[in-house]
Design brief:
The complex is a heterodimer of chains A (about 600) and B (about 325).
Chain A lengths: L7 E9 L8 E8 L4 E5 L6 H9 L7 E2 L4 E4 L2 E2 L5 H7 L4 E4 L3 H4 L6 H10 L5 H14 L5 H6 L7 H13 L5 E5 L7 H18 L2 E6 L2 H7 L2 E6 L2 E7 H7 L23 E12 L2 E12 L3 E5 L6 H8 L7 E6 L11 E2 L5 H7 L3 E4 L13 H11 L5 H14 L4 H4 L8 H14 L4 E5 L7 H16 L3 E5 L3 H7 L2 E6 L2 E7 H4 L6 H8 L6 H6 L30 H5 L5 E4 L2 E3 L11
Parallel strand pairs in A: 3-9, 3-10, 7-8, 8-9, 14-19, 14-20, 17-18, 18-19
Antiparallel strand pairs in A: 1-2, 1-4, 1-5, 5-6, 10-11, 12-13, 12-15, 15-16, 20-21, 21-23, 22-23
Chain B lengths: L1 H28 L16 H11 L5 H13 L5 E2 L4 E2 H36 L4 H15 L2 H15 L16 H39 L2 H8 L4 H38 L5 H10 L3 H29 L1 H6 L1
Antiparallel strand pairs in B: 1-2
Classes of the chains: A alpha/beta (about 600), B mainly alpha (about 325).
Chain lengths: ~600, ~325
C-alpha cells in the first residue's frame, strides 16, 4: 500500500525515553486504509499506548519522537508539523477514546460541554456545536440527549460515560479513531454494547478504527487486520484470523470447549461456611442473603458485574466490613492447634486477630495494599512474624523462597514495594497472603491489570496452593481463569446469587438468562460466536434501588418473561444435581 | 439534604457559643476588672469601684454573669463598653467596616495573586522563572506578617515616603474620587502585609494541585479533542486544581483576622483588631466578648462561603450533601 491511498501511514516510528535504556517504540511501520479496522495487541509495556500517544502528538513529557520517524495523516506530514497543525488534526481528523471513562471526563464539567468543545475547538460556532452534540449524544445511545448534556460524569454509569466520550471523539467525524482499551474498565455485559456502538459509528462515518487491546480474541472478532507489538517492535501484521490461529490460546476457549477443573466427588466437611450473609452500607443492601460452603482443597469462583456485591462478600467474610446479619464459620485444620469451629462474626478483637491467620484476603488492586517504603521480603515476612510462625532471619528466608516461587528473584525481593511494577506488587501481595498458610484464601480480582505472563504465574501459584489443601475463593470477572481455577462457581447479580453449582455447568452451560449473557460476553475470537452473543440492553441498575421481583427482569432477554418476574422473586432452587439457579422460566430450552 | 444543612448550622452555632464562652471565662480569670483602681485618677476611689462592680453585676459568680450575658445577648444587647463609654454594639459597628475592608482586600489579593501565580507555576513545570517565584513565596511564607508590616513601614512608608504610615485616610483630606484614591493609598501597605503571606501559601497549594491535574486523564482527553492549550488550562485544569485551595480558603479568614490584630496596630488602622486589643488591656469584658462574638461569626460565615465555593467546583459534593 502506498502513502497516497492510505489515510494514516507511519514509517520507522521511534520513541525513546531518556530514563529507560530500551526504546518505547522502535521502527514501527504500517499504513491504514480509509475505513479499515485494525487491532493493535500486545502485552502491557509493549508500546501500545505509546503508539496511540505518538499518533496524536500527545507523548508524555519524558518521551521523545525520533526526528527520522514519519507520521502521515492524509497528506499532512505530522512528524514535521508545528504544535498548531497537530492541534488542528487532533479531535478533527484523528480522535481518541481512552480506557478509563471516569478519569477521562472532567468531573466538574457537564457532559454536553465536554462533547461540544470538540467542535468549538475547531472553529464551529457554539449553536452549531450544541446541535451536533445533541445529535451525537442521541446517536451513541442516550435516550434523552438534553438531560445527558446537563449531567456530570459521576451521574452516569461506566458504560454511559464511555458512550459520552465516544460521542466527543466522533463529533467531528474524524478519519481515524484510536480506541485505547475502550472496554477494559467496563463490565462484561456492557463491553459488547460499547464495541457494537464503535463498529456501527465506524460503518456510518467511514472512520478507520485502531482498536488497541490486550485481548487478542476481542480484537480478532472486531477487526480486519491485527498488528502485534512486542517490546516496542511491530512483530506481526496480518489478517486477524491468521494472527489468532497462530497463537495457541488455551485460555480463551469457546464456552463449550474450555478446560474446566472437575469437582471432587464427595466434598469433605466445610472449612468455610457462609449462611444468609447480608451486608448494608447505609440504605444500600450490597449483599442480600448469600450462602455457600467451601471444603479443604476446593475453590469457588464468584462472578458478576461491578456492584453485584462480590467484593462485599469478601470483605464481610474477613470482617473488614460490618455484617448486618448471617453466619460465617471457619474450621481451621486441627493440626495447627486450633480445634473446632470458629464463629467468625462473634469473635472479639484478639481471637479474631489470631483467626485471621487462617482466612487471608488478597484485596482488589492488591499492589496498592502494600506499604510503599517496605521491601517485598519484609512485607511477606511481616505476616509470619505477626502470627508467630517464624522470626527474623528464618522469616526472611521463607519470604524469599516464597517470592522466588512466584517469580520475584532475590534482587526484586530487596526492593521497596514502590519500586516494583504493578504485576510484581500483585505477586508480592499474593505471597504475603499465602505465607501464613491459611486454611482459606480469598482473592478479589487477583488477575486484574496484569499481563499474560504474570497471569499464568499467578494462576499456577494459586492452583498449587489449592492442590496443597488451601480452600480458595476467586472473585473475578475473568471467566476463563475462574473456569481453570475453581471447580464450583457462583454468579451474583445485585447482591443475590442467581446461579450456583459446578463450574462445568454454571460457567459452561448456564441456565439463568443473566448468567447466559455474562458467559456469552467472553470474546472467543470467533466471529460466528460473536454474532450469537447475547447483548443485553440497558445498564446495571443501582444497588440502592434494585428492581422488584427478579432483579434482572428489566434487562432480561428471555422471550417468555412476564408479570411474575417483576412481582415475585424467584428462589435459588436445584435444577440438576449440583446446580442451583434462580429463574421463573426454568428449565430453559438449550441455548445452543 | 435539608437535615444535613440544619445540622451544619447547628454545629456552627455550637462553635460560636463555645468560643464566646471560653473567652468570657478566660478574661475573667485574668487579674483585674473594668474598675481596677486607676492610679492616674484620684477621684476613682476603691469605694466607687466597688459600687460600680455591684451595679454591673461583676460581684456575682462567673456562671451567673455568663447566664446574664447570654440572655442579654439573645435580646440583642451586647452591653456597655466601660473603656469607651458607649454601647458595645456602637463601638463594634464603628470598627467593623475598617477591618472588613482590610481583611477582604487582603484576602482578595491573597487569592488573586496566589491562584494566578500558583496555576502558572504548576502548569509550566520547570523554568528559572518558576523556581525564582517559588523562592519568593517560600520567603514570604517563612517571614511572619508583622515583620513584613514592619519592613513595609520602614522602607516604602517611612524612608521613601511612597505610602502613608498610619490611618485609613488623610485627616481633612480630599473627598470624592480623590478621597477614594487617598483611601486606597492608605489601604495598600497593610493589605499587602496581611495578604502576601497568605498568597504565598495559596500559590504553593495551587501549584501542587495544578501539577497533579496537569497529568490527569481528562486533561489529556481535552487535548485529544484539539483544544487550545490556554483553554485546556482554564476550562479543565484550573477548576479542578482549585478544589484543594478552596478547601483551605475557609481557614484563611480566621488567619487574616488574627493577622489583622497586629497589622492594624502597626498601621494605626481603626479596626476591630485594635479595638479588641485595647479592650483586653482595659479589662472591658463586654467589649471583648462582643468582639470575639463578631470574629467567631465571621469565621463561621467564611467557612460556609468556602464550602459553597467548593460545592461549585465539585459537582459530586452537591449530589452527596
Amino acid at each position: 500500500m502506498t502513502v497516497t491511498d492510505s489515510i494514516l501511514s507511519v514509517r520507522a516510528l521511534d520513541v525513546t525515553r531518556p530514563r529507560s535504556a530500551q526504546p518505547a517504540l522502535q521502527g514501527v511501520t504500517f499504513a491504514v486504509a480509509p475505513g479499515e479496522r485494525i487491532g493493535i495487541v500486545g502485552h502491557s509495556g509493549a508500546g501500545k499506548s505509546t503508539l496511540a500517544s505518538a499518533l496524536l502528538g500527545l507523548l508524555p513529557r519524558d518521551a521523545t519522537l525520533d526526528p527520522a520517524s514519519e507520521i502521515h495523516l492524509g497528506d499532512t506530514a505530522l512528524h514535521r508539523a508545528d504544535a498548531e497543525t497537530w492541534r488542528r488534526a487532533r479531535g478533527a481528523r484523528i480522535a481518541l477514546v481512552m480506557q478509563e471513562p471516569m478519569l477521562a471526563l472532567n468531573p466538574a464539567m457537564r457532559i454536553g460541554a465536554q462533547v461540544a468543545e470538540a467542535a468549538t475547538a475547531h472553529g464551529i460556532a457554539r449553536d452549531e456545536a450544541d446541535a451536533r452534540m445533541l445529535e451525537m449524544l442521541a446517536k451513541v445511545g442516550f435516550g434523552d440527549p438534553r438531560a445527558a448534556a446537563r449531567a456530570y460524569a459521576h451521574e452516569l454509569s461506566g458504560g454511559m460515560r464511555q458512550r459520552a466520550l465516544i460521542a466527543a471523539a466522533m463529533l467531528m467525524r474524524p478519519a481515524v479513531l484510536i480506541a485505547d482499551e475502550p472496554t477494559t474498565a467496563l463490565d462484561p455485559t456492557i463491553q459488547a454494547q460499547v464495541l457494537d456502538l464503535l463498529g456501527a459509528l465506524r460503518d456510518e462515518v467511514g472512520t478507520a478504527l485502531l482498536l488497541i487491546s490486550h485481548d487478542l480474541p476481542l480484537v480478532a472478532e472486531r477487526c480486519d487486520r491485527v498488528l502485534r507489538l512486542e517490546h516496542g517492535r511491530l512483530v506481526e501484521d496480518d489478517h486477524a484470523d491468521r494472527v489468532l490461529a497462530r497463537h495457541h490460546i488455551r485460555d480463551y476457549p469457546t464456552p463449550s470447549s474450555g478446560p474446566v477443573v472437575p469437582r471432587a466427588a464427595a466434598p469433605p466437611s466445610a472449612v468455610l461456611s457462609v449462611q444468609d450473609l447480608v451486608v448494608r452500607y447505609g440504605d444500600v443492601e450490597a449483599v442480600r442473603g448469600v450462602s455457600f460452603q467451601l471444603a479443604r482443597g476446593e475453590a469457588l469462583g464468584i462472578v458478576g458485574e461491578s456492584g453485584c456485591g462480590k467484593s462485599s462478600v469478601a470483605h464481610a467474610v474477613t470482617r473488614l466490613v460490618a455484617v448486618a446479619s448471617g453466619r460465617v464459620t471457619l474450621t481451621p485444620p486441627t493440626a495447627s492447634g486450633h480445634a473446632g469451629t470458629l464463629d467468625l462474626l462473634a469473635l472479639s478483637r484478639e481471637p479474631l486477630r489470631r483467626a485471621r491467620r487462617h482466612i487471608q484476603l488478597i484485596p482488589q488492586d492488591a499492589g496498592a495494599s502494600l506499604t510503599p517504603h517496605l521491601t517485598a521480603e519484609a512485607l511477606v515476612a511481616e505476616g509470619l512474624e505477626v502470627h508467630g510462625l517464624a522470626q527474623g532471619a528464618t522469616a526472611l528466608a521463607r519470604a524469599r523462597s516464597l517470592l522466588a516461587e512466584l517469580g520475584i528473584g532475590a534482587d526484586l525481593a530487596r526492593r521497596q514495594a514502590q519500586q516494583l511494577s504493578t504485576g510484581e506488587r500483585q505477586r508480592v501481595a499474593i505471597a504475603r497472603a499465602i505465607a501464613v498458610e491459611p486454611a482459606v484464601l480469598i482473592c478479589d480480582e487477583p488477575l486484574a491489570a496484569v499481563d499474560e505472563a504474570t497471569r499464568e504465574r499467578i494462576i499456577e501459584a494459586l492452583e498449587t496452593r489449592r492442590r496443597g489443601g488451601i480452600a480458595l475463593v476467586i472473585i473475578s470477572h475473568d471467566l476463563p481463569a475462574v473456569r481453570r481455577l475453581a471447580p464450583s462457581a457462583m454468579v451474583m447479580y445485585l447482591g443475590r446469587v442467581v446461579e450456583h453449582g459446578a463450574t462445568a455447568e454454571v460457567l459452561v452451560a448456564p441456565q439463568m438468562p443473566y448468567a447466559q449473557a455474562l458467559v456469552s460476553a467472553i470474546p472467543t475470537g470467533d466471529r460466528e460466536s460473536s454474532r450469537r452473543r447475547i447483548v443485553l440492553h440497558g445498564e446495571v441498575p443501582s444497588p440502592a434501588a434494585p428492581p422488584s421481583g427478579c432483579a434482572f427482569h428489566p434487562r432480561c432477554p428471555h422471550p417468555q418473561k412476564d408479570d411474575r418476574c417483576s412481582r415475585e422473586r424467584p428462589a435459588l432452587v436445584p435444577i440438576a444435581p449440583d446446580h442451583l439457579a434462580a429463574c421463573w422460566k426454568l428449565p430453559l430450552p438449550p441455548s445452543r | 439534604m435539608r437535615g444535613n444543612q440544619l445540622r451544619r448550622i447547628g454545629d456552627a452555632a455550637l462553635l460560636v457559643a463555645l468560643v464566646v464562652a471560653t473567652c468570657f471565662i478566660l478574661i475573667r480569670l485574668a487579674p483585674g476588672d473594668p474598675f481596677y483602681p486607676r492610679l492616674d485618677d484620684p477621684a476613682w476611689t476603691p469605694e466607687r469601684a466597688a459600687t460600680q462592680r455591684v451595679a454591673f453585676g461583676y460581684d456575682k459568680p462567673i456562671r451567673i454573669q455568663f447566664v446574664y450575658y447570654v440572655s442579654r445577648t439573645f435580646r440583642g444587647d451586647l452591653g456597655w463598653s466601660h473603656s469607651r463609654n458607649q454601647p458595645v454594639a456602637e463601638a463594634l459597628a464603628s470598627a467593623l467596616p475598617a477591618t472588613g475592608l482590610l481583611v477582604v482586600t487582603a484576602l482578595g489579593i491573597a487569592f488573586a495573586v496566589g491562584i494566578l501565580v500558583g496555576a502558572w507555576q504548576g502548569w509550566r513545570r520547570d523554568s528559572p522563572l518558576v523556581r525564582a517565584s517559588d523562592r519568593v513565596s517560600l520567603v514570604l511564607l517563612s517571614v511572619p506578617e508583622f515583620l513584613i508590616a514592619v519592613f513595609a513601614l520602614m522602607g516604602p512608608a517611612l524612608a521613601w515616603r511612597w505610602f502613608p504610615t498610619a490611618g485609613m485616610r488623610t485627616p481633612y483630606g480630599p473627598e470624592g474620587v480623590l478621597g477614594l484614591l487617598d483611601r486606597l493609598h492608605h489601604l495598600a501597605l497593610p493589605a499587602l502585609a496581611l495578604g502576601l503571606p497568605i498568597a504565598a501559601v495559596v500559590a504553593r497549594l495551587q501549584a501542587s494541585a495544578m501539577r497533579e491535574v496537569r497529568d490527569a486523564e481528562f486533561v489529556r482527553a481535552a487535548r485529544s479533542r484539539g483544544l487550545l492549550d490556554g483553554l485546556v488550562l482554564r476550562r479543565h485544569a484550573l477548576r479542578n486544581a482549585l478544589i484543594p485551595v478552596l478547601t483551605y480558603a475557609g481557614l484563611q479568614l480566621s488567619t487574616a483576622l488574627s493577622g489583622a490584630v497586629i497589622v492594624e496596630r502597626l498601621f494605626s488602622w481603626p479596626g476591630m483588631g485594635r479595638l479588641i486589643v485595647d479592650a483586653v488591656g482595659a479589662r472591658d469584658y463586654p467589649l471583648v466578648a462582643g468582639g470575639v462574638l463578631v470574629a467567631a461569626l465571621c469565621t463561621v460565615v467564611g467557612t460556609m462561603l468556602a464550602d459553597l465555593a467548593l460545592r461549585w467546583a465539585t459537582p459530586r459534593l452537591r449530589a452527596r450533601a
